[in-house]
Structure formats: C-alpha cells, structure tokens
Amino acid sequence: MNPTTPAPRFAATLGRLAIVATLSLAASTASFAVAPPADDSRAQLAAGKSRFDKLCVSCHGADGAGKDTYGPRLQNRPELSETQIRTRIVEGKHGDHAMPPWGSVLDAQAIEQLVAYVSVLRQPSAAQADAPLSPFDLNEPDRIEAGRKRFAKTCAGYCHGHEGVGGRAPDFKGRTDLSAQMAFDTIFHGRMTSDVMPPWGDALSEEQIWELVAYLQYLGRQPLE
Ligand code: HEC
Fold first, then answer.
1. Phi-psi region of 205 (alpha: psi -120 to 50; beta: other; left: phi over 0)
2. How far apart are CA 37 and CA 94, in angstroms?
3. Model-level pTM?
4. Ligand 1 centroid to 72 CA: how many Å?
5. Both ends of the chain: CA-CA distance in Å?
6. Does ligand 1 have an atom closer than 6 angstroms to the CB of 55?
7. Domains of the chain (ranges, CATH numbers)
8. Contact present, 211 and 146 (Cβ < 8 Å)
9. Rounded distance from Cα 184 to ligand 1 centre (Å)
10. What is the per-residue pLDDT for 26?
11. Distance 213 CA to ligand 1 centre (A)
12. What digits encode the pLDDT tens for the residues 16-39?
C-alpha cells in the first residue's frame, strides 16, 4: 500500500471538487446575503484549529492541553478573556518565558480564526466535550454518503474491508470508542504502529477527510452482525 499511488486520480477529483465548491459557495453567498449560515463559525473554528496545530502546539500542546509544555495550558481557562487572548496572540510576550508575536506574521482573518478556536478551548466544557471541529454536521446524510463512496474507493481495497469490516485493520462497525477528532487526526497524519496506516493529509482535502469521518461515525452506530 503506497500512499502516493492514487494521487493523480485524487488530483483530478480535487480539481472537480474545487469547481463545485466555488459554484456552491457563490450560490450560498447569494442566498445567505442577510443571515450568514451557522456553518461560518464551524469553518472558522476548523481553520483556527488547523492553524493552531501548525503554529502553537509546539509550545501549548495538542488542543492547548499544556501538559509538560513550555507554554501554559489553554484548555479550561475560563478566566482568559477574548481580548486577553487576542492581545497575547497579536503582541506575544517579551522577556522571560516569551511567546512570539503573530500580529506582523498573520493577517487579521487568521488571527480571528485563532482567537475563535482558543476561545472555545478555554471553556471548561471544551476539554471534556468531544466536540469535533468539522466544517459541517457529521450526521448529514449527504456527507455520510460521500464518505461511504470515498471509503469504498480509497480505504476498503487497501486495508479496511467492505464497510470497514474484515480487513487487515480494526473493524469500524459498532465502534463507539473512536472519537471524530481522533479519526480525523489518524486519517490526516496516518499512524506508525506495527501496521502502518498512510497519511492522507496531502492527497485529500480536509473536507473529504471529514466526510470519511462522518461515514466512520455512521458505521460506529451500526450493530456488528
Ligand atoms: C515559543 C513558544 C510559544 C508559541 C509557538 C506560542 N506560544 Fe502562546 N504562550 C507561550 C508562553 C511562554 C506563554 C505565557 C506568557 C506569559 O507568561 O504571560 C503563552 C501565552 C499564551 C496565551 C495567554 C495564556 C495565559 O495564560 O495568559 C495565549 C492565548 C496563547 N499563548 C496563544 C497562542 C497561540 C494561539 C499560538 C499560536 C499562534 C501560540 N500561543 C504560540 C509560548 C508560546
């Protein structure tokens, strides 16, 4: 199983999807001219998380868990105000125990995405609640169906078996222990255990990966015959 083999087919698919996405974005902008869709804030959070994963986890830990890290924990910090968060991200901190300033590196939109994400992290419930940062509702039948098709094409043949059962890898049906975020991270980064799962983060868009997650979560809700 070579993760790079199917790339050309994905590239073509991605190209088509980009066109579809652009068209549907244009359509939704028109119809939501007055009230923005709730999906906007999910998309902002998802963008904030992926930026946080690149720029901030080295010091604050995954999802700001801050265990044995140089930077402080950001989870479960209700006392941090949104203004404090924004100011710290923009200005950083000089002197002892410094944090780099991002105000001159990132544009305003990127900063707001990070502020939105950290503002969710700091809430006491966020640490426990397994609220996946998917840009759409993982229970949407259309997304599950898209994920099912992609799974059949991409994942079943390689390792996971039809409907995620009976392949070389663990079954997905009836599984309740696999959180959406964990599934996303595993698909995106791959996994290096005794049996290697290739990373798909370069071959698939985040949206496509979330559709796979929607399908896996759906499988998890099905009884194992
Ligand atoms: C080089 C390590 C480092 C990186 C990278 C870093 N931080 Fe920090 N961060 C720190 C340190 C150290 C502090 C504590 C500064 C202090 O003592 O006030 C901090 C503080 C914070 C605070 C305030 C928390 C508090 O307890 O007051 C926020 C919010 C924050 N960082 C967000 C971020 C975000 C978002 C990113 C990514 C864009 C980021 N940090 C990247 C080291 C880092």
1. beta
2. 39
3. 0.53
4. 7
5. 28
6. yes
7. 39-128 (1.10.760.10), 135-220 (1.10.760.10)
8. yes
9. 25
10. 39
11. 31
12. 444 444 433 433 333 334 444 456
